[in-house]
Amino acid sequence: MTISIEPRSRWVGVGTSTEGDSTRAGADAAKAALRGDDPKLLVVFASDSHDLKALLAGVNETSGGVPLIGCSTAGEIWTDGPEDASVVITALGGEGFTVSTTYAQGVSDDQRGTGAAVAAAVADLDDRPHQVLLLLTDGLAGSQEEVVRGAYGVLGASVPLVGGCAGDDLKMRQTFQFHNDQVLSNAAVGAALGSDAPFGIGVQHGWRKVGEPMIVTNSANSRVYTLDDEPALDVYLRRLNAPPEAHQDPAVFTRFALTHPLGLRRRIGEEMRFVQDADFTDRSLGCIAEVPRGGLTWIMEGDEESVLRATESSCMDALASLNGLPPLGLIAFDCVARRGVLGNDGIRSEIQRVARQAGGAPVAGFYTYGEIARTRGTGGFHNQTLVVLAMG
User: Fold this and answer.
1) Same domain flag for 368 and 319
2) In this predicted model, what pLDDT tens digit does every residue of 130-178 receive, in sequence order?
3) Which residues partner with 98 through β-bridges?
4) Domain membership of residue 31 as a residue range
5) Coil, strand, or helix at residue 353?
6) What is the DSSP letter of 97?
7) Residues 44 and 100 in one domain
8) What confidence score (pLDDT) does residue 2 get?
9) Contact, 128 vs 75, CB < 8 A?
């Protein structure tokens, strides 16, 4: 089905800055993004190498206080390619959009309650035929799937969820979330969006199984203690023939594990689990989200070809849901582990492919510690994937 909405009462703009002065970087990126009248929302993705309070001050002074959400990253994405130590801002505006924003703190103590609190923003939307909840959360808070379940408990199946988990450039210490002029941590922020035209969401991973499956014989939440009744770390390192440094250096282990996620079997396909750390004392593995005890898991691998195929598939799936409308813009939530597989040349190629799929519409996004895409069922938290939001 092809639909036409004329005149187009909505617009999307993207601005970026690599300026070292944080206040100026925020102001410059906001000015470039604010390309139309009646701005409704700014979505800010920024490296935590910036003074984030100063950066938001620059954004808000330029915008005049347009509602704002955002987060820190493990790298930034915009139409012309990937960046580091930068800020990328998406602006949405026009009478065809309606927006409600909110935040909730203490996500690590109550993931499900936090997701429910943020999802409540949908109740404040003006009536529009199409809705989506854009959700950004602390990537180090654990049990992120519970955040999604909490949001689903409020919204049900009618409102899709999309977003990602904040990063800190792989330091794995603290991530930050933004709401208006506030820099938060251990929080989730959300923007409920209503539109006169459809939204589209695509999600693909591009990983494949390596070797035989393993049984998760002991786990608790996002920590895996044993696989096939052996210490999980020992099994993982042995199966991958990991370099000696990964057996003893936490930073080396994290970099190595970026490109070797665990895969879980689900009714609707496979889900990835980013292995974020190892405990060299109890020999356990720490993952971004739950790895259920008693389930089967595989070590996964990918290469440039498989990951880039998934990039194009995710974009095409998102665009297909626009029912023939050309996109106003795309927002990409790309797992930092995919960046590890592709390398510097590969991530430039990936963003070029996303930009081609956008057909001239602006592109923004960031490298995440986990991705959110719930379009059916109660689940919707992902690792090691590319999630794309297309706005018609």
Assistant:
1) yes
2) 999 999 999 999 888 899 999 999 999 889 999 999 999 989 899 999 9
3) 194
4) 11-204+305-391
5) helix
6) E
7) yes
8) 35
9) no
